[in-house]
């Protein structure tokens, strides 16, 4: 869970979502992990058959609150079967959608896009941490903050700003000051240190600050920022290496995604800039138009939503499952890289896509 949530923090899921551990004992020993897009009774059966006691899925099984657990529907049946056989269920859903290396990046890579970036970055996820450190301890404090997740700006790590100043204080009776004596005014050199901080890491960062700082009382400020987080948000946009005609681009979609059908709007101009969103992405049509994208690739578009193209781009519906079908590769790589010699990490053979096509 720590590995998965370091890659896709639960704080980045949408308010309506229910990512995380859905059932199971977080302290149990893992024998094997089965990865699937959806968790169904057949997927749990496969996990049992293949010796896996954890299922990691993209879509949460428990999405809406359960009022009872009687096996009255497939969600309840799946959950009962998992509990009876001690199979833990874990989901990483919109938190994995919303990170720059998540579901949409995987889809962009499959389509061969270059310079991929978040289509709709989220605001309000960052803070600035300001603290004051004696110069001889500045590097140690910064190292502790970096280790706690602070100081990351895009692909740049260990980012900070410091300025020199002078501190003044008078230690009270019974204190054990780093410099000076109780009851005596004191002044000395101090560095003002500033780092960018994801809000969800604030508690860990402050704990690291206090542990590394030499002062008995640590002065700090946390200022919430409205800046957008360029590595967290919905959808993705990038460019094709070379422009393609609309027909050539649709053929690329069919080939890269293995889809039999692409529902699309008419469009005559060459396709160069491509926006996309795995799953149901109609809410980003306007954002895709605003970026100047020539095509927007997603799933689950309704009839009236196709009018949202307004002749400015080609809307392409490849299907919900089809646009997220490679998500399992993200889970597999994360878990295999960290635990490959500890337990089996398997991709489910069960097809969970409920949609079929007749021609």
TrEMBL record:
InterPro entries listed in its UniProt record: DUF34/NIF3, DUF34/NIF3_bac, DUF34/NIF3_sf, N-reg_PII/ATP_PRibTrfase_C
Provenance organism: Hymenobacter amundsenii
CC terms in the record's Gene Ontology section: cytoplasm
A GO term for molecular function: metal ion binding
Subunit annotation: Homohexamer.
Residues reported in the UniProt entry to bind a divalent metal cation: 58-59, 97, 320, 324
Record's protein name: GTP cyclohydrolase 1 type 2 homolog
Database matches in Pfam families: DUF34_NIF3
Keywords linked to the UniProt accession: Metal-binding
Entry's family note: Belongs to the GTP cyclohydrolase I type 2/NIF3 family.
